[in-house]
Amino acid sequence: MNWLKSLPLFVQLLAFSVIMMYLPMAFAIRLEDWDVARTFFYYTTFLLILLTLVGIAVSGYASRNSARHYLLTAFGAFLTIPALLALPFTYLVPSITYFQAYFEMLSSLTTTGATLFDDPSLVPAPLHMMRAIVGWIGGFFILVVAVSIFAPLQIGGFEVFAASRTGQKSTTQIAKADASKRLGRNAAQIFPVYVFVTALLALCLLISGDRTLVAVSHAMSIISTSGISPVGGLQGASSGYAGEALMFFFLFFAVSRHSFFFGSDSEAFSNLKLDKEINLVLICITVIPVLLFIRHWSAAFEVSATDEATSAIIALWGAIFTVLSFLTTTGFESDAWEGAQNWSGLGTTGIILMGLSIMGGGIATTAGGVKLLRVYALYKHGQREIERLSHPNSVASSSQRVRMIRREGAQIAWIFLMLFVLSLAFVALALAATGISFSDSLLFATAGLSNTGPLAHAAGESFTGYANISDTGKAILCVAMILGRLEALAVIAVLNPNYWR
Q: Contact at 8 Å (CB) between 117 and 467?
């Protein structure tokens, strides 16, 4: 065991990801799909033997225990792990190329959930389980990276709190400390909670009527916000609105960083009702669904579609669930979402879903996007600037921390927002250069950078599937998914000349 702990983190991540592939092998054995089971066994065993040899070769290597070094390791892991996991996928689905299988695995690992298979029946059931497991691994990985690497480097949303000179000094000292110990300690603390909430949701979905594959896959997708489904979404599930209600509750794990990591800020955890990210989400899932409901209700009233109260309640629920799902960058549509459109005769409000996906979930969660804390900092700064228009010399009555968030915190949040917008523009232009229409390019770029793969299907009126994108376009989306998962500030931290010195 000590020998395993002494291995470089990069090798440990590869080994852990490969070992998890024995789970879809066991599922294939249960289904008596022996060809798929043998394929997983052969490839997984071969890769483990190869990684064991690599581990023996680098067992004496002493890596630098700095946060920036492990940040570079995280980049390498997101590039390499899908390359290994794509091998059995390519063999079992001969209709796709190796690069397409790589795109599928990278989409799952980054919790984007963009799939090349619009028809789930084209893929064997164990491969759907594999996609869900890879997304689940990616969610756990980003949680550990956020609290162990992003926090000391003041990126990933933590920079909003690290604006004072004292905070920068203490954080610099943490960044120089042994990062490997933080990674091990945080992983050991998060993993039991991560497994428990996933198993609890899967059990609840099973009781609600879902099949084993659907319940486990949807539970993993909700907790990791990957939006991966073996039946093409919640419309193919058997749990119905009861299952959606259960998923709705567990989606809040992607709203606040206190969900999985309880030791980061005990004061904020004890006053969870004061968490600004949760408060902002509650406002969004109250105001936006009501506005959408009024829009649908007014259209239904004009055409006299129906006057049943049940249809109105179902339409409201569909809006509430879908808003929270896209706000956490999960991308599941409620079964009532399509019913609300049929009820009113109005189409999808794609721009709203795009805005919710860009806003994203909480910092140090599995959600992507700009992050709610940055949005809150910009909101407070804007509110204060409006107040100063009327009272230029006024002094706001608030704590020092709140003043920091709306001044220095808002400044760095604005910088990140501009980096995100510039990245969105470059990715959209690059996709448009491959022959995709501008509107679809913007939609694909938003889905990739916000790690919300189902957004293209939900918000696109002319969406024809990711499979119809050229390999060049898929390569651009691969870059966008990694950039969105690790964020632009993390890329800048790696490219910083101080790191190479």
A: yes
